[in-house]
Amino acid sequence: MNILYYCWNENSSADLEQAFCSLGFSFTKITCRLNSYDSEPVFERQVDDILRQYRFDCIYTFNYFPILSNIAQKHQLPYIAWVYDCPNLTIYSRTIKNPCNYLFLFDRTMYGQACSLGAQHAFHMPLAVHTRRLNQQLNLTGHNSKTLANASSYDISFVGSLYENNMYDQVRYLPDRLRGYFDGAMRAQQEVWGYHFLEELVEDDILKETLSYVHLEENPAYTFSPRQIIVNMLDQKITSNERTRLLQKIAQAHTVDLFSGSPCDHIKHCRAHGAISYTGEMPFVFRNSKININISLRSITSGIPLRCLDIMGARGFLLSNYQPELAEYFVAGEDFVYFESDEDLLDKIEYFLVHEDERRQIANNGWQKIQSGFSYEPKLREIFSVIS
Fold first, then answer.
1. What is the pTM of this model?
2. What is the per-residue pLDDT across 263-293, written as a single tens digit (0 to 9) for each?
3. CATH number of the domain to which 63 belongs
4. Are 332 and 317 in the same domain?
5. Could you give the CA distance from residue 252 to residue 294 in angstroms, rounded to a whole number?
6. What is the pLDDT of residues 88-140, one digit of tens each?
């Protein structure tokens, strides 16, 4: 297998390259900052030249790039895109119908959307972690030995953005009635995990009025609706509200260590550490925390966020909101723990901070599941077997 791999400096690039080598795949990596996902003549000529000079079996990317789909279509090559961001608005490109596309989407809801948009080869595929790197990096073995953990450096940790620059907060003016309606809709969605109903609440009259204040440029190359853009805007705002609110509540009773590039001054009593690197510091934080909190981006309506796999892959204890696919692939209470409300989150933190043996066993169970089902090599074998 000889792969042309377009890398956009995503966090998982080094892990992917090591997995390619482990599988015996040859690859050529190209890196170039794209100013447009749809058309960039200089980039297109560069890729064309590479494809004419060398023989490749396919083009591969994390996430979907319409410009590469068109290039692959021209050269009659399969284009494999493993989508791990949600939303990934480029799946609404009209190029999604190109027969060269092989889309692997980690969120089952997004997979259904791709199918409805006309993708001819779409597959549901959960994400993966580089288990071999993590096991070597953290000196993990297959034994549930207390000597592996020693004393945890942190009681409760959260790694991630607070989405302080969300689109909703950048809207300079909405009439009080309309903003009040959206605030109520967001509060209602915040009460429910596992069922996403915001789109149903953005009714036609609400949408029409909103668009008189929020200017959205139409792009004929894409099929997404203004309603979907507004919903994505609200999802980001809900996530910002939830992460801030929950971390503030936890910090009132416990020491919380927050690893984020976002400003954290407004979250009182937490210890802010700044952003950390994906392959460097992050695994050690997960391994050396008694409790790792996941609060999912609300646009991930079904799938398992990569953060959850990162935590369990580092043999960390995961306490997450409810996600349908997380509960499908892992056993709640055995491999991880989920919370259903603010009060439930606080109660479970209190419980698992003092029940050390149970907490360690759950972390070990989750790690074992990652070894057997969420490592890069078997996932990539499955992906590339489709085009073989």
1. 0.95
2. 998 888 899 999 999 999 999 999 999 999 9
3. 3.40.50.2000
4. yes
5. 18
6. 999 999 999 999 999 999 999 999 999 999 999 999 999 999 999 999 999 98
